[in-house]
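Second opinion, please. Please look over this fold, written as tokens:

===
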Amino acid sequence: MASLRTDYLSLDGGRRSLNALSLVAFVSCAVSIACSIYTSSAVATLAPANPSALYSEDRHGRDWEEEFRYMYRPSGEAAPPRKFALPLITPMQNQKERGSCWVFSIAGVLEHSYRKFAVDNGWFDPDEYLRLSEQGIGAAIVRACRKLPEVCKTGDGDSAYTGNSTEGGEPEWLYYMQRYISDTVALPWSVCPYNPKHSINDTVCADEKLLEASPLSLRVASLHTYYELSEMKEALVKHGRAMGFSFAFFNRAYRLPCTGEMHPLLGRCDPDKAQCVPCPLEPNFENVECCVQMSRTGSSMHGEFYGGRTPDSDYSQEGGHAVLLVGYNDNYVSPTGMVGGLIVKNSWKDGVGAGSHTIDYLMQRHSPIAERKVCPNVHLPDSWYPCGSLHECSSEKVRISAKAMHKVLRLECNNGFGFAGEGKEKICDDGDEYFFKNVTKFGGGLSVSCFIAARDGADLCLPPMWYEDLTLLFSPVEGEKRENDADQCGFYFFPYESFRSIAATQDTPWATDLDVHWDLGSFANAPRHYRRHGKDYSLLEKDTLRQRRDDFAGPFPRLVRPL
């Protein structure tokens, strides 16, 4: 029978091993310590000379002495920096049409820890990383749920406890069921490619034989969950580990005027037949008797999360979401004016209705112009270049300016994409080209936007609507469509204000630090004597990739050095 490998790589690069003799010695020592504590005098227990001596590491690996030190921080001890982001974060991946965000959060934790270990030990170049299989992570954990249903009946609305689905789960499960999955939860991506749609194949890998050939093995030494912002920030800085971050996800309600005129969302809305609600108490709604309540997702195309109960907004909880916490910036001002927040890696594809940024931008390391070179977010109306007339919009000057600013100049109507369905009048004809003219705030979160027809210069001004919903009516012409860089984009901003409003409305968001230790035989470039017998290291080599990163010398991405 093969022996159990107990050589693991810790975060500080050291090696830890445990054998039967050391285990006996450890247990004996623990019993001795426990006896001495419980036979101490009551006075000594209540008022020890060293208060932190009461605290020790419990079964979850929590360092109570460290927590005591944190709660009573000496006045001269430095606070965490105003902004911080982890290096070596791997690229964003898309969860697609499945409720598997928690799986992608785990994958982010594992990929970062593996990459950090490899780089620290010289086994990876800094731009190398191993892409892991989200399908394999979900399959391993859900199969373990069949054996441990009590572990998997923890989340609100989760379905993974059935043992047949990854629709809803928790990143923390990795720690609690590691005994059953330590050799199977981490797989190179090609061993078990991701199934983009929820189906009966959520728990299936394409080639079961390759599971046994994978060299990857890990254990999670400890779990520590933080519920307070300052503790999350300090843990990021101190431990240097990406953390799972879970929160309640909200939809934002808003109200559209129903006046009998054509509206791209409502069609020709009849106030006598509509389900009316009171309109916002704002000047432009003064003569509007009927409004229709609408709802949109609790994140913006700028890659910003919001939600919870606030004085001027109405939100309803849609469910829960899990992402990867990688940094924070106390100074960043979001497009909605919120100052300071967390930086998280999301698992949603950028495009119509969704946008994101780089870590460097959210850390304020380069300009908005440089950011649009990397993450152009071409469907975001703020990325469209405004001009005032057909003559101006058609000029060489405007063309050069739009290109220099990395903004979209020419748009086309795609009226059939979402709004103007059967029975609704068309706002514009599909394929007709337009230029973006201007946007004026209307009230109630709505705006009036105007466009210029490229055919004849006629103005097209739309009824009041949510500004970002313009992306469902107009899109860049084919020659101006650009994808966000998948190696660098995919990061969202989670404002501190959103954190507090969600905490006040629903459950407090939390971050979980999983201290992952990898078996030294999990690395293809480690010394050969660490290699695990019978394992195929070409699987690791196949999915070891390089990540691109742009560096900018100033605000203009084209200018690098003096000419």
Q: What stands out?
A: The two ends are 68 Å apart (CA to CA). The longest strand covers residues 314-333. DSSP finds 16 helices and 20 strands in the chain.
